[in-house]
Amino acid sequence: MVMSPTPSLPRIMDKAPDFEAVTTHGPIKLSEWAKDSWVVFFSHPADFTPVCTTEFMSFSDLWPEFQKRGVKLIGLSVDGIQSHIAWTRNIAEKQGKKVPFPVIADLNKDVASKYGMVHQNQSSTVTVRAVFVIDPKMTIRALIYYPLSLGRNMQEILRVIDALQTADKHSIATPANWKPGDKVIIPAPATDALADERVKDKTLEVIDWYLSKKQI
Q: Average pLDDT of each block of 10 consecutive residues along the chain (216 residues)?
């Protein structure tokens, strides 16, 4: 059996595809709903499934942390609106976790197709676990994909937000395993003269001329 090709994925620094959709919080248009906010837009395979339930519980637990960072959450699967409502109410009733963010009903896969969320070789009937981080200019800044069997680490998604917002504010980069409070990486020198200055700079942690850190 020959699988049809997976739709192209939006890429980092692409404009986030706009859409109108029905959600558990009513109809929305992404560009209007997300105006002036960061957005974490994520898909899950299906309602009333165990891994997805743990993810929604975790997202709900961290909702205040996302709010502190000016981030809106919005989920999606190819289930219908009544299924979404029943499932989120079940999570509230059985697990004591009220889902505070909207969930898109995408039965026709219209939105999922725009974001390349259905990967045919994984499943042709459900969305994989995609995460898109979208900035206030509707630009895609990061994307992460997980298979159906792998639940996401929500702390890592928060860390990505923190790193992107810090980089934007201070024009720096963040090293591996960075978390708020750690030193950041400053841009490498662009000339020999600046490289000479860098290695003599006592205000920085100079590992080498091209790799230096500072506290912000």
A: 59 97 98 97 97 98 98 97 98 97 97 94 90 98 96 98 98 98 97 96 96 97
Residue 12 forms part of a structural domain: no
Distance, in Å, from the CA atom of 168 to the CA atom of 215, rounded to the nearest integer, reads 16
CA 89/CA 99 separation, integer angstroms: 8
Write the CATH number for 80: 3.40.30.10
pTM of the model: 0.92
Which residue's structure tokens are 């990505």?
A: 160
The number of beta carbons lying within 10 Å of the beta carbon of residue 6 is: 16
CA distance 31 to 20: 9
For residues 195 and 189, is the Cβ–Cβ distance under 8 A? yes
Is the separation of the CB atoms in 92 and 128 below 8 Å?
no
User: What's at 199, amino acid-wise?
Assistant: V
- Whole-angstrom distance, CA of residue 126 vs CA of residue 34: 25
Query: In this predicted structure, what is the pLDDT of residue 75?
Result: 98
Query: Residue 17 burial (CB < 10 Å; 0-12/13-18/19+)?
Result: middle
The range of the structural domain enclosing residue 144 comes to 20-152
Q: Spell out the residues 6+ positions from residue 85 whose beta carbon is closer than 8 angstroms to its own.
A: 24
List the catalytic residues: 52
Give me the DSSP letters along 142-169: EEEEE-TT----HHHHHHHHHHHHHHHH
Same domain, 145 and 197: no
Helix (H, G, I), strand (E, B) or coil at 59: helix
